[in-house]
Amino acid sequence: MKKIIYALGLTIMLLTGSVFATEQKIAVVNVMYILQNMPERETVSKTLNSEFESRAKTLQSQEKKAQEAAQRLQKEGLTLSAGDKNKLKDIIASFEEKAKAFSQDYHKRENEEVNKLLGHIQQAVSTLVKQEHYTLVLKAEAAFYVNDTIDITEKVLEQVKK
């Protein structure tokens, strides 16, 4: 029994030794840099701005009304009737609710668009991995130190631009 375990252990060591003896090609990619410098990023930004422009303008006018209501409530709060106070509080609450909904909708759409861009980056990395035979590609954001010789960020950016 001991001989079998010994032989099995020796076989495992020999097999794993040959795996580690092969050349490992490691690369690092700065995804945030690519996202900021992609040509599509500008298009996405313009699309989102135009998509939410009318809601933003409406919200800005409501913000002025809410600010005026808050100021009036602060200045005249002691002399206002309960009904007037409630109306002013409703104006403020309505604005806050709409502002929160706007922010959530905008961030949801922005995340959808960023995920599409990340998909393009992933495809570019996959293409480079196949072309240049990398065994491991890491995000630069996850590393404490990166030697410039293994940074393929610019190559990925060029691939994304194709």
UniProtKB/TrEMBL annotation:
GO biological process terms on file: protein stabilization
InterPro entries: Chaperone_Skp (IPR005632), Skp_dom_sf (IPR024930)
Coiled-coil parts of chain: 49-105
Keywords: Coiled coil, Signal
Annotated Pfam families: OmpH
SUPFAM superfamilies (alphabetical): OmpH-like
GO MF term set: unfolded protein binding
Superkingdom of origin: Bacteria
Gene3D superfamilies, alphabetized: Skp domain
GO CC terms: cytosol
PANTHER family in UniProt: CHAPERONE PROTEIN SKP
Family the entry assigns: Belongs to the skp family.
Name of the protein in its database record: Molecular chaperone
Organism of provenance: Candidatus Schmidhempelia bombi str. Bimp
Lineage of the organism: Bacteria, Pseudomonadati, Pseudomonadota, Gammaproteobacteria, Orbales
